[in-house]
Amino acid sequence: MTAPTYPDLRDASVFITGGGSGIGASLTEGFLRQGARVAFIGRSDASAFVDEMEQATGNRPLFLQGDVTDIAGLRAAMDRAAEAHGTITRLVNNAANDQRHKTLEVDEAFYDWSQSINLKSYFFACQHAIRGMQAAGGGHIVNFSSISYMMGNAGYPIYTASNGGITAMSRSLAREFGPDGIRVNALAPGWVLTQKQLDMWADPEGLAAHLDRQCLKEHLKPEDIVNPTLFLASDASRMMTGQAMVVDGGVVVTG
């Protein structure tokens, strides 16, 4: 898949949460190929991935090992990215965990853990990036949501609540910080077949049932999410803010 070129992304300072695996790894590569200065945070060692990306794109990302639920550590990682690449003007909140759970079995500790990854970290990453974007005269934020809450899916109610919260939060931030030239949009992917999904939840029956719901009869791959993200993070979408863009092969219908 050939990506359009967005000249304003060249040399832009981009920060991606969870940018070393799954959809996040594809996002990191996509921005690197645009010539952006990319930093990403992740829990697992991504040194080999960094070397691979430099060899593949000629552009080396900055890996900052950490856990997004550690808000002080997240802020410190963003500060290090800004020191290395300049003020962050493109933030992509991608890190998430859709661990399945049963409502009647959830305890308070699990609830807090899930929300800390799937919503709390998004808010504080936005908050920290916005301060720099205000000083820089503007910026673009892409917050990853999911169609799971639009479908009313069972099996992970705390995760779907977080997704709904991400969309609502994005709209409120877009309203509050639009006067500063800061755009905030949500991107809601469908069922993207990352290796984690294939290993843990993508059984043949479930895959067939989901594909039957799609208008386009082809499963989504991580690469399918890259171009929409680049569009939202670039000036090509300069008058688009407070929106939720769905990329799901035609499962849910918005509007």
Automatic annotation (TrEMBL):
<dbReference type="InterPro" id="IPR057326">
    <property type="entry name" value="KR_dom"/>
</dbReference>
<dbReference type="InterPro" id="IPR002347">
    <property type="entry name" value="SDR_fam"/>
</dbReference>
<protein>
    <submittedName>
        <fullName>NAD(P)-dependent dehydrogenase (Short-subunit alcohol dehydrogenase family)</fullName>
    </submittedName>
</protein>
<keyword id="KW-0560">Oxidoreductase</keyword>
<comment type="similarity">
    <text>Belongs to the short-chain dehydrogenases/reductases (SDR) family.</text>
</comment>
<feature type="domain" description="Ketoreductase">
    <location>
        <begin position="12"/>
        <end position="204"/>
    </location>
</feature>
<dbReference type="GO" id="GO:0016616">
    <property type="term" value="F:oxidoreductase activity, acting on the CH-OH group of donors, NAD or NADP as acceptor"/>
</dbReference>
<dbReference type="InterPro" id="IPR036291">
    <property type="entry name" value="NAD(P)-bd_dom_sf"/>
</dbReference>
<dbReference type="Pfam" id="PF13561">
    <property type="entry name" value="adh_short_C2"/>
</dbReference>
